Amino acid sequence: QVQLVESGGGLVQPGGSLGLSCAASGRFFAINAMGWYRQAPGKQRELVAVMASGGSTNYADSVKGRFTISRDNAKNTVYLQMNSLKPEDTAVYFCNANIRTYTTYNQPYWGQGTQVTVSS
């Protein structure tokens, strides 16, 4: 039905940069919000950044000024550019999308997650 696939994770040194991407595929009627969450060891999953279909954004305070979310609606893809990375950014990053299918109203879908490790 619907699949979200992330790419771009990896290992970087503090102060480095990474770019993540997530593409939605399958059969669906519309995508509302798309965004990124992360989960560090021993912690709850938290919102990193989200963008509505109209372009409004919301960021976690911890990443403001360092991360930038963008979106290409024609490609059903959301991106996350991460700059000035810190060790505390280390986590599994999950793509999230609220999607309306032909048989359901908006429901959350999740990618498989991609590991981001910031370490010297």
Commentary on this structure:
With 120 residues, this protein is mostly beta strands. The strands form two sheets. Strands 2, 4, 5, 6, 9, 10 and 11 form a seven-stranded mixed beta sheet that branches. The radius of gyration is 14 Å and the shape is elongated. It starts with a strand and ends with a strand.
User: Strand percentage, roughly?
Assistant: over 45%
Distance between the ends: 41 Å
The Cα radius of gyration reads 14 Å
Number of strands: 11
- The outline comes out as elongated
Largest beta-sheet details? 7 strands, mixed
Query: In DSSP terms, counting alpha (H) and pi (I) runs of 4 or more, how many helices?
Result: 0
In N-to-C order, the SSE pattern is: EEEEEEEEEEE
Mean pLDDT reading: 97
Structural class: mainly beta
Low-confidence stretches: none
Please give the share of residues in helix: under 10%
